[in-house]
Specification:
By secondary structure, the chain is mostly helical. It contains 29 helices and no strands. α11 packs antiparallel against α12, α19 packs parallel to α21 and α21 packs parallel to α23.
């Protein structure tokens, strides 16, 4: 209900020159009036009432007091009137609750009052979904995508197209929806919206194609990523460094260095300067193959182009050296990284320790792990796992246990990989009791063993020919919902082969059952089968099951 403000206009409410003159005149008049009153009182009283000296003193005192109090009283009244006038002014009235006209409620206030559970923000265009401008509708589409509400985003974009907002349509809402589809792996939906985009008269831009390429790369579909880049170039849309880097990465992560190099060459031909990300992808691809020389070549080329290698760049080269088993070369690149003022991180040190582990050099691995801690880099489960693995490969169970104890002291929670490494150390040392102890400790810590952990646990028992224990592990694994793989099958067949007496029938039955379930019969498995049933019988079983020589060599 609309209310009316009652504004009282009092005298002396404003401080104009006329007001001041009126106040001064009034005070002067009062002063003259007091003087006249004093004169008449003196004439009328004579000497009858009070002696002249006393009467004059009282009158003059009263006159002074009146002259002092009246101006003060008028000034106070003037100030109070001025404040009241300001308070009642239209400019300030709306700031005072309960007085004047209240401020008009905003659209957001009405929405909040009707829907108290709404989560929209004041800047949200949600209230304009029905019939808003093309810009506000585009913002609504983007907001829906950010909120993970893909279907609402699609509905809004359909409404935009139906409402003939074609004059205001641009790539933004279409790219938002395409991105929402691609993010959920719905490439068919992404393609469909690309067609809708064109049918609405909006041409896809670089971002549109980059979204599609990125989704294809994440889905490990390098062919599809290449298809979108080719389509982009064919349509005359300029490809940028992100476009090419995405395709290079798609090929590189599959270890397809030749195709990755092909797209780097295409990138340079198109006059697009590669960034360090493209080179990192190539170096990573070389690392997967253990091709340290090629990894070094790409790093040098990146530097020649004026690019600054990052910690990930150097780490990829160290990893390439580690996979090739070249510890000295890996150490050289760790030193070069420090010389370039690039601080190695936990991944860098872990790659270096992996190189030591691959070479079975536990002492070197421990030294690099200590150097990492001295540099202030916090170790993690992976770095400890790498050191424990190095100790396991060198057969030093005591050192592996010491590293495990250090890990617990550092407050690092062990995962299944760490426990599997410790179990592997027990297997190499042939320590059955400690293997059982580690396995029980893993379960007590709430870490779910995987098939690798079970295989590591079974191996020392298999070498002793304790097939009953290995079979019990197989039963536990099955009850845990884990499927046997070739590593555990090898341990089981080895247990039957090492048993006294040898368990040939059990070995053949276990092999046939495993092969029927799709477990690979590699050369290690067939060798263990041959030891359990005899080479001749193993060859006959392989012929019966149609196992080729090629498969058996894998």
């Amino acid at each position: 209900m609309k209310t009316t403000a009652m504004i009282s206009k009092k005298p002396f409410a404003t401080k104009t020159t006329a007001d001041k003159l009126r106040v001064t005149s009034f005070l002067a008049g009062v002063t003259i009036l007091v003087c006249v009153a004093d004169y008449f009182l003196a004439e009328m009283g004579g000497e009858k009432a009070i002696p002249a000296g006393g009467r004059s003193f009282l009158i003059e005192t009263a006159t002074v007091l009146v002259c002092m109090l009246l101006p003060a009283a008028f000034m106070h009244m003037s100030k109070a009137a001025f404040k009241q006038n300001v308070k009642d002014s239209p400019k300030n009235r709306k700031l005072i609750p309960g007085e004047g006209h209240p401020p008009k409620a905003s659209k957001l206030d009405k929405q909040v009052s009707c829907q108290s559970d709404s989560t929209e923000t004041p800047d949200s265009p949600e209230g304009k979904e029905a019939g808003g401008t093309a810009r506000s509708m585009s913002q609504a589409v983007a907001a829906a995508v950010r909120a993970g509400e893909r279907h609402r985003a699609e509905r809004l974009l359909h409404e935009m197209m139906k409402a003939k907002h074609l004059g205001g349509l641009d790539t933004m809402p279409f790219n938002s929806v395409i991105h929402a589809c691609a993010k959920t792996g719905d490439m068919l939906g992404a393609r469909r919206w690309l067609r809708h985009m064109r049918s609405a008269g909006v041409e896809p831009n670089t971002i549109s194609y980059n979204i599609l390429m990125d989704a294809s790369a994440k889905a490990d579909d390098a062919e599809d990523a290449e298809h979108w880049l080719s389509e982009m170039i064919k349509d005359g849309i300029p490809a940028n460094e992100v476009s090419y880097a995405t395709v290079i990465h798609a090929r590189a992560k599959r270890g397809e260095t030749e195709r990755a190099e092909h797209w780097l060459a295409k990138m340079l031909e198109a006059g697009v300067e590669p960034n360090i990300v493209s080179y990192n992808s190539l170096i990573y691809a070389c690392g997967r193959k253990g091709d340290a020389a090629s990894a070094e070549k790409w790093l040098r080329e990146a530097e020649e182009r004026g690019l600054s290698p990052r910690v990930t760049t150097y780490t990829a080269v160290v990893d390439a050296c580690a996979k090739s088993g070249d510890v000295e070369r890996a150490e050289l690149w760790m030193e070069k990284m420090k010389e370039a003022k690039v601080e190695p991180n936990v991944v860098s040190y872990s790659a270096m320790i992996d190189a030591c582990a691959k070479a079975g050099d536990a002492i070197r691995a421990q030294r690099w792990h200590q150097r990492m801690r001295n540099a202030g880099v916090q170790p993690n489960a992976h770095s400890f796992s790498a050191v424990i693995n190095a100790c396991a490969k060198s057969g030093n169970l005591t050192a592996a246990y010491e590293e495990f104890d250090r890990m617990e002291e550092a407050g690092v929670v062990a995962d299944v990989v760490v426990y599997s490494g410790l179990l592997d150390a027990c297997a190499k040392a042939g320590d059955l009791e400690r293997a059982k102890e580690v396995f029980a400790r893993m379960k007590a810590a709430g870490v779910q063993p995987n098939v690798v952990a079970y295989a590591s646990l079974a191996r020392p028992f298999a070498h002793r020919g304790e097939w009953q224990e290995v079979e019990s592990f197989a039963t536990d694994m099955q009850q845990a919902g884990l499927v046997m793989n070739e590593y555990f099958l090898y341990a089981l067949l080895l247990a039957y082969a090492s048993a006294k007496p040898r368990q040939s029938e059990r070995a053949e039955a276990a092999f046939r059952k495993a092969y029927a379930k799709g477990i690979e019969a590699n050369k290690h498995v067939l060798t263990a089968l041959g030891r359990a049933v005899g080479r001749g019988r193993a060859a006959q079983i392989a012929r019966d099951l149609g196992i080729s020589c090629v498969e058996s060599r894998r």
